[in-house]
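<context>
A single protein, sequence plus fold
<sample>
Here is the protein in question:
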Amino acid sequence: MAEGELLIPPLRPGAHLAVIAPAGPPKPGRLEPVEGWLRERGYAATLLPSCFGPPSLDFLAAPDHVRAADVHEAFAHPRYDAVLALRGGSGCIRLLDGLDLDWLAASRKLLIGYSDLTVLHALRTRAGIPSLHAPMPASDWGLPGAQADTDALFERLARGWRVGDVVGRAEPHALSHGGKARGRLIGGNLAMFCALLGTPYLPDVDGALLFVEDISEEPYRVDRMLSQLRLSGVLDRIAGLLVGSFSGAESPDAVLADHLPRLRCPVLAGWPAGHGQPNRPLPLGVMAELDVAAGTLTLG
């Protein structure tokens, strides 16, 4: 691809976003400001029925058929220009075998979200369509310390992403090693990526750059998941590993320090994305070059 070629088009002022809740329900008070926040940024928004429940199994925003219908509606209806997830939590994986994958692949609308949305990002990657690991309204927007991440998201949505863009920089980190690697950027939440192993929904890992992050996973669970990736052969097949934040539990740094030096591929740790702050927007499903010495990720 040529330098400067558009990878993810900008969302122009007045663009209409479909807001869906394919995973967990919003906490009290987190739903009502969403339309206003988007209007302030120059966008129109429609909150689809899954955002309003009723919750199912105590941890799902709405029954499976409602959440699946909203995914289809958001990507299929021509009035919507992009699809924004309300929050993560749990539940997206329940939808996969009930979604019309050909229908979804026919739409190149940008999917925005992270955490449990990792499994929907995997569908976009498998279809050759970029998506965006980025802050979500009911999880991040308006919270103390999150303003810079939200501003970064909307600033980049207005500009889009092009070949040659440097999408971020990691500070020097003890767990980083190796040189450069180039591949398609895949992944997201470590637990959800591991949940796709053995299913037909896992993105192609051969020669990929794998991004991982997580929250509230104790070190023994991170160890188990990294072992699963190793035993399944994933860690031998990727071209490089990009490591985001691990927050909300005891630090897994000792576990990471045990696993990551064994990898033959370059590892760039301390990437500013994940459930903690900072959580800068990160395009997925696009080709990129990881440069450990520079601490950068360059698209294309």
The first helix runs from residue 34 to 40. The CA atoms of residues 19 and 47 lie 5 Å apart.
